[in-house]
């Protein structure tokens, strides 16, 4: 039998160690980067609920991702295991819900870490958010809508007190129309200055009860321009696919 001298054995051991090291490294890298996640952490006050749920929203359905316990007002929600093949779905809209009527909608991408604070008794009106640009834009849209609603409710209270005073009712109507115009301008400004964000879709379609701030058919060129800009970056995003179908329907 041929003997292996010490120098040959040492080389063989070193080579084996190198192969083993790089195999483990590749395995580690594969585990680290083959999937990604999005993290939502929250701090809630006046919270009587015990659980909170995370849903991923699509144009025609929602998918429940997970449910988490709320401990001392704190919670953590994660969308884990996002694969490379799924990345074309993002950015994606998410619903964070305490109940069917008490929830917020935000926008996130893999790797995002988002922190939410608010009063659990009325989450959408009280929450604040820190994190990347998209969830901040969604929060700004919610905050501005809240300001509009508060202003309208104040006008309604004055209107009820002066039902038979026509001059005051005329002034109330003027104020109401001005509030609508101001909010419309805010939405147009948001769309114009954030053309690369899917949050602009929320801005375009934002509503309050029956009030539509941006009429779809009246602003079809704007909607078409939004689609063309967003589609350059997110051609396979479900929201853009749905918007293209919607544009085709309107144009028929």
Structure explained in plain terms:
It contains 7 helices and 10 strands. By secondary structure, the protein is α+β, with helices and mostly antiparallel strands. The protein has a 4-stranded mixed sheet, sandwiched between helices. A 4-stranded antiparallel sheet has the order 3-2-5-6. A hairpin with a 2-residue loop joins strand 9 and strand 10. 22% of the residues are buried.
Sum up the structure in keywords.
single chain; 252 residues; alpha+beta; four-stranded mixed sheet; 7 helices; 49% helix; 25% strand; flat
Q: What is the helical fraction, as a range of percent?
A: 40-55%
Spans of at least 5 consecutive residues whose pLDDT stays below 50 are 1-11, 18-22, 24-33
Largest sheet: 4 strands, mixed
Spatial extent as radius of gyration: 26 Å
What is the β-strand count? 10
- Beginning-to-end CA distance, first to last residue: 85 Å
Per DSSP, the total helix count is: 7
- Give the mean pLDDT: 89
Structural class: alpha+beta
Strand neighbour order, sheet with most strands: 4-1-7-8
Amount of beta strand: 25-35%
From the spread of the alpha carbons, the general shape counts as flat
The topology string of helices and strands comes to HEEEEEEEHEHHHEEHH
